[in-house]
């Protein structure tokens, strides 16, 4: 075999000609660093390292100054649109830590002892003997603790550790009150008029043509008086609207196949459904007049409105809830009850 150059392994041609296994090439020749042989370079490096550590001290002092210098009250100081206190505290503390890190690296690279050592690898798994010794020590610890003989202590300890879980659970209260049954109800109720959601005007069946879709809302958003309560407005209205929004469509009555019990939920081919997709809650109103399909623009769930709002395509797992309709004494469309099932995404009601 050809002689190996120190610091270099055998070449492909070496192996091809000899077929010998690769030999340990050893360490490359040790070359002294400039700081090992030049006292001036050593001094320079020393000053450099000290400079980084000194810079870190200065930055810490600036951190303290920043803490007291900037106003963080109702009218906080800003710099480039950012809170001055936050900005300068972050910069000075980050810089101080960075300088310590750089100084330490430079110290070890340039000035600490440059001795190269070799450490042989060994299997990560402990020897059988070590494993047995460890297991024996573990068992001895268990025996010494008497945990097997003292169920009272063991059980109270487990209870104490379990009780610590409350620390994670109790603060969940800060998320707000439990929703209770509010997710099951909307503001629709028997006798409430159906209003156009743009004009706010109550709808009459004869104003809706076959094939037409109207976005609609309960009258209580426009007039609460007939229902013996205040008109719902403001934030409360926004919350209520997200659940009560409906679409009203008119089809040929002969095209509709109502499910058992829903035969009288429509008026002359006019049906009302929740506008909230049962997949993840997008508002829906892409209406195909010819097929009587309603498409959700978010993930293409498709609902057959002539067939009780059934899902015929897409990820939605539940039919669109239908609002039962009738006509009042003055000929306006009204709901005959609230929805009979929860509206919106179905995940929270499963099971
Ligand atoms: S939200 Fe309607 S399909 Fe996903």
TrEMBL record:
Protein name: Cytochrome bc1 complex Rieske iron-sulfur subunit
InterPro entries reported in the protein's UniProt record: QcrA_N, Rieske_2Fe-2S, Rieske_2Fe-2S_sf, Rieske_Fe-S_prot, Rieske_Fe-S_prot_C
Task performed by this protein: Iron-sulfur subunit of the cytochrome bc1 complex, an essential component of the respiratory electron transport chain required for ATP synthesis. The bc1 complex catalyzes the oxidation of menaquinol and the reduction of cytochrome c in the respiratory chain. The bc1 complex operates through a Q-cycle mechanism that couples electron transfer to generation of the proton gradient that drives ATP synthesis.
Chain ranges of the Rieske domain: 236-334
Gene3D superfamilies reported in the protein's UniProt record: Rieske [2Fe-2S] iron-sulphur domain
Keywords: 2Fe-2S, Cell membrane, Disulfide bond, Electron transport, Iron, Iron-sulfur, Membrane, Metal-binding, Oxidoreductase, Respiratory chain, Transmembrane, Transmembrane helix, Transport
Annotated compartments: Cell membrane
Cofactor requirements of the protein: [2Fe-2S] cluster
Annotated transmembrane regions: 49-70, 82-105, 152-172
